[in-house]
Amino acid sequence: QVQLVESGGGSVLPGNSLRLSCAASGLTFSSHTMGWFRQAPGKEREFVSTITWSHGRTMYSESVKGRFTISRLNANNTLSLQMNSLKPEDTAVYYCAAAKAFYYPRPTGEEVSYNYWGQGTQVTVSS
Question: Percentage of the chain surpassing pLDDT 90?
Answer without folding.
Answer: 96
